[in-house]
Design goal:
By secondary structure, this protein is mainly α. The protein has one domain: Up-down Bundle (Rhopdopsin 7-helix transmembrane proteins), CATH 1.20.1070. It contains ten helices and two strands. The chain has helices at 20-50, 57-74, 85-111, 116-119, 122-148, 165-169, 177-210, 215-243, 252-276, 279-295; strands at 12-13, 157-158. A two-stranded parallel sheet has the order 1-2. Helix 1 runs parallel beside helix 9 (252-276), helix 1 (20-50) packs across helix 10 and helix 7 (177-210) runs antiparallel to helix 8 (215-243). It is globular and about 65 Å long.
Length: 296
């Protein structure tokens, strides 16, 4: 390492170039959305915990997704954790894996309903959920180790609102080829691979739904997986644009906006989609409210 290169102990996050009035407004809006995210996902967790009718594999995985979304938003929004690249990548990778596990659950429920309770045993559900967490954190750990080996010199301004991988690599003055290869490889592992498995599952699900004779049966079967399909489309679509589309240097501001949506709105969207479009969750919420009234 040359004399003009040194490890940068801290970075200056450029964020969004906005005026003071707009910053105050956005701060209030983002704070409200963040609190809403915690409340909405917390409500999902509470309903699943309290209502025995929701003690099924689907809602078991949904509870993991709620925990991830709360942690995911917390890894970049509060001041205490906003610069922890490791947590951001770890929770994002884990969510990808949990989503593919949830698609497998829907595949078994629709394509093999008679064998559902046998295939989706609590032992298998626990193994799938627990395995997703160390896999996601391992991906983040690899990125962190490769990042720590890089030298930094000159400007330490990172054109982002948190320590995002690609934005950090742009201020490194060493060879980042290995890091970029790792980003593409991990993208294939947590994005392309899971998405391919989910598309295969949903093709099989669609074929199974089309074979159902009654219109009411087709509608009910499709409604059980439509919520998950909406979340998958948004989550994986944005992630692939951010990390798999070639970076030509002209997408920095657009990618910051996508990152903001990914970090703030997507975790809030999950509980809204799964609650507003899910009759079982709405029924569980009604029972919880009625029980609370009876106590009074």
């Amino acid at each position: 390492m040359g004399h003009n290169q040194s490890w940068a102990p801290e970075f200056i996050l450029v964020g969004f170039p906005l005026g003071a009035d707009m910053e105050v407004l956005l701060c209030a809006v983002f704070s409200l959305l963040y609190v809403s995210n915690l409340l909405a996902n917390g409500m999902i967790l509470g309903l699943i915990w309290l209502d025995v009718r929701l003690h099924t594999p689907m809602y078991f995985f949904l509870s993991h997704l709620a925990v991830i979304d709360m942690s995911y938003a917390s890894s970049s929004l509060p001041k205490l954790l906003e610069n922890l690249m490791y947590l951001y990548v770890a929770f994002a990778s884990t969510e990808c894996l949990i989503l593919v596990v949830m698609s497998y659950d829907r595949y078994v429920a629709i394509c093999q309903p008679l064998h559902y309770t046998v295939i989706m045993s609590w032992r298998l559900c626990t193994v799938l959920a627990i395995t997703s967490w160390p896999c996601g954190f391992s991906v983040a750990l690899i990125h962190l180790i490769l990042f720590l080996r890089l030298p930094f010199c000159g400007s330490q301004e990172v054109n982002h609102f948190f320590c995002e991988l690609i934005a950090l690599l742009k201020v490194a003055c060493g060879d980042t080829w290995i890091n970029k290869v790792c980003i593409l490889s991990s993208g294939a592992f947590v994005l392309v691979g899971p998405l391919s498995l989910m598309l295969f599952s949903y093709v099989r699900i669609l074929l199974a739904i089309l074979r159902i004779k009654s219109k009411e049966g087709r509608s009910k079967a499709f409604s059980t997986c439509s919520s998950h399909l909406c979340v998958v489309g948004l989550y994986f679509g944005i992630a692939m644009v951010m990390y798999l589309v070639p970076d030509n240097g002209h997408w920095d501001e657009q990618k910051k906006v996508l990152s903001l949506f990914y970090t703030l709105f997507n975790p809030l969207l999950n509980p809204l989609v799964y609650s507003l479009r899910n009759a079982q969750v709405k029924a569980a919420f009604s029972r919880a409210v009625q029980k609370q009234r009876n106590y009074k």
